[in-house]
Amino acid sequence: MWYTKDTERVSIDLETNTETGLTNVEAKKRLDQVGANEFSEHKKESIFTLFFRQINSLLIYILIGAALISAFVGEYSDAIIIVLVILLNTIIGVIQESKAEKALEELKKMTTPKAIVKRDGMTVEIPSEHVVPGDIVIIDAGRFIPADIRLIETANFQVEESSLTGESVPIDKNADWVAAEELPIADQRNMAFMSTLSSYGRAIGIVVNTGMQTEIGKIANLLGKQEKEQTPLQKKLAELGKILGIGAVIVSVIIFLIGYFQGRDVLDMFLISVSLAVAAIPEGLPAIVTIVLALGVQRMIERQAVVRKLPAVETLGAVSVICSDKTGTLTQNKMTVTKVYVNGNYLSMNSPLLKQREYSRFFEAMALCNDAVFTEEEHSGDPTEIALVAAAHVAGFEKQILDKNYERIFEIAFDSDRKMMTTVHHHGGRYFVMVKGALESILPKIRVTTLEVDKIKNVANEMSAEALRVLAIAYKEIPTFDNSMTSEDLEKELIFLGLTGMIDPPREEVKASIAQCKQAGIQTIMITGDNQKTAFAIAKDLGIANEEIESMSGSEIDRLSESELCEKVNKIRVFARVSPEHKVKIVKALKTNERIVAMTGDGVNDAPSLKQADVGVAMGKGGTDVAKGAADIVLTDDNFATIVAAVEEGRNIYQNIKKSILFLLSCNLGEIITLFIAILLGWPAPLSAIHILWINLITDTLPAISLGLDPDDPDVMDQQPRSIKESIFAHGSGMFTLLYGLLIGSLTLFAFVTGLNYYTGAPSIFSIDFSNISKDALVHAQTMAFVTLSIAQLFHSLNLRSTKKSLREVGLFTNKFLLVSIFVGIALQALLVNVPVFNDIFDLHILSLKDWLFVLTLSLVPIIFSELSKAWKRIF
Ligand code: ATP
């Protein structure tokens, strides 16, 4: 039991060095021995289960029954085709599903947390699967604990262990404590366990167990599988699918009954009805949606946005407000101190006066109350802190040397609620408290006259107006120090040392992105912990805000009631000096006003607001694991422009899915109308069961997917955001489906009766004697209907590419997949019709050149109609 051993024993037992960590060679060896630090995968679905799941539907069973009946009565070719269609459909379904599944898995891999370990004396970040027993890991606030760890050094370290113990109150951990007896997990205070969360402070520990050997690993098998999340659209589609399914079955039953009472062949009618039901239900739709979503997500990754929760892709497209952090997201987070205010002097950083002796305490404090690493070779840590150490360096003070002389014996880490940081140092028998932080946080704690306060505030305002980030530095000497001293004791009656003003230039690309958001009806709101004046100055520069009244501070939010905030929130563009709780309030207020909110965050305390937002966006580089865990998407470059790119992608994905859906529905409707009207009018069936199944196969698969992959619409960011409640049939899409269903159905019927008219020799289509038609004429006419219906549908897919733009404007060749799908479809039809073996099996007639010209012309009507109506819309 590691927690009963002292740290030295643990490091000896695990053959590691707490200063330098394992060597890379040793780590590799151990990784090979014990395996990756992850839970063994749940059993994947086998191809066979996937296959069976595709077949496992009532309609397919009926279809199999129909094939059996056909075989039984000697219609072997029908039976074979039906089985073949079922097989092909199933195979395509399996391929689609496993592709979608694979894409989702890849995604999961991209979002696994990283761990900081010592290897070969260097501090490196590695994927947490590569952590091995004996590794020395370094943990700061907000990180997931990557393995089971015996702590060897702790500074105010607290861990939230709810994932393991159910207890959500953070537990204090202490490396120096050693247990004398066996204890339950919750009481092992010198241990930290895999997948729990460090909520405060920092620690160093030795990895004792990894993967399935960890405490959580032992119960991982019990945790069961994660539920797959469905997007709102997928849920809506499932509903729609049910309604369509019921509708299709009802229509098929009606067609069957009409046919039956008209005295038609019962088996024929049965086969036609079942095939129609199968064709009318867009059973491929869920898989197509998943594929389009998953591929869209891949494209987002290329644009630096990793989607953690699939539903977010869709919500992204409907975002109407983006609330963004300032530092690092809108700005470069490359801080440089340019001005200082010290001993009553306002100086620029290149002033030779900086090196004066009386300024030394000021620079010492800023370097000591600081966790950054700054040497010739290496700069690491918080950019604000790096800037301060760099400024001290310019003034002639080296952090490394100071750290040795002024031993740090206590610290209260920076947190964005308190907006300050305090350390206690021991130097030659004297004790110093060093403090740095936001001026608002430090002013109440310093000993100064009102006159001095006014002067300090004036300088701070001057710095802020120049968009500088202002930090105050203070200190005091205390006679002695003991661990029972509270922050109130340490942080009262401080002596003011000075102010630093640092620039953080805006990111170049952000201005254009903000302008693009405006164009796209999306509001940008800056939310920052920084000072109101500084924040506004940067917001103005970026084009987020124009007037100072568009900014509000956290304390103002506190003074407003919920309803007052709701009222004001729409006019505010900059929220400054906010704490993470304010962020939650802001999101709530915006959501009450029916806005769809994307909110960024990086800290431990940002998790609630990220969860509250419609789309939570975490920073991949600077963000904590907690923020990433709570977010829907993670930005790998922490850049605001990436959020906008993701919104654009989200809009495109939604549009493309909609295109596929409307295409499938209008085509299926065309098929239903063709048969329903013909049967109702007492005509022979224009299509046989296998014709219907075949058409369904060639149109429902390739063209529908190709539409889902349509290239991005360059105008998508010129439109207003879509309402999340909007149905896919909104904005005339329902009418569109109906209209083209009717048109395609009518064209097919027209091709059919024209064929009958011609090949029965009737004087006109109105004088065909439907009761007396030769088999040859019927097959000929059916072939014409078959070809018209399929090719009209294939061409119709082009209509879906844009609701407004003509094909020429969209670019006929921009979606090559679709062109290939159409070409393959037409080629297959030509093959079936012209090659004797096939036309025999499919009961088709070879068409003459005249027939071909006729059916091709009819098939082009939907495109011509659509192009004319788009031109009409553009002109009027
Ligand atoms: P954003 O919320 O846009 O990222 P931010 O980085 O300014 O902005 P916080 O990190 O919460 O927000 O910082 C809030 C304030 O706390 C800063 O304006 C600064 O005055 C102070 N501050 C920031 N970093 C430190 C630090 N390391 N030590 C002490 N005070 C700090």
From TrEMBL:
Gene Ontology BP annotations: export from cell
Catalysed reaction equations from the record: Ca(2+)(in) + ATP + H2O = Ca(2+)(out) + ADP + phosphate + H(+)
Segments forming domain Cation-transporting P-type ATPase N-terminal: 1-75
InterPro entries noted in UniProt: ATPase_P-typ_cation-transptr_C (IPR006068), ATPase_P-typ_cation-transptr_N (IPR004014), ATPase_P-typ_cyto_dom_N (IPR023299), ATPase_P-typ_P_site (IPR018303), ATPase_P-typ_TM_dom_sf (IPR023298), ATPase_P-typ_transduc_dom_A_sf (IPR008250), ATPase_P-type_domA (IPR059000), HAD-like_sf (IPR036412)
PROSITE patterns (alphabetical): ATPASE_E1_E2
UniProt EC number: 7.2.2.10
Keywords, in A-Z order: ATP-binding, Calcium, Calcium transport, Cell membrane, Ion transport, Magnesium, Membrane, Metal-binding, Nucleotide-binding, Phosphoprotein, Translocase, Transmembrane, Transmembrane helix, Transport
Domain of life the protein comes from: Bacteria
Membrane protein topology class: Multi-pass membrane protein
SUPFAM superfamilies given in the database record: Calcium ATPase, transduction domain A, Calcium ATPase, transmembrane domain M, HAD-like, Metal cation-transporting ATPase, ATP-binding domain N
GO molecular function ontology, one term from the record: ATP hydrolysis activity
Keyword Zinc-finger: no
Pfam families reported for this sequence: Cation_ATPase, Cation_ATPase_C, Cation_ATPase_N, E1-E2_ATPase
Family: Belongs to the cation transport ATPase (P-type) (TC 3.A.3) family. Type IIA subfamily.
This protein's name: P-type Ca(2+) transporter
Species of provenance: Schinkia azotoformans LMG 9581
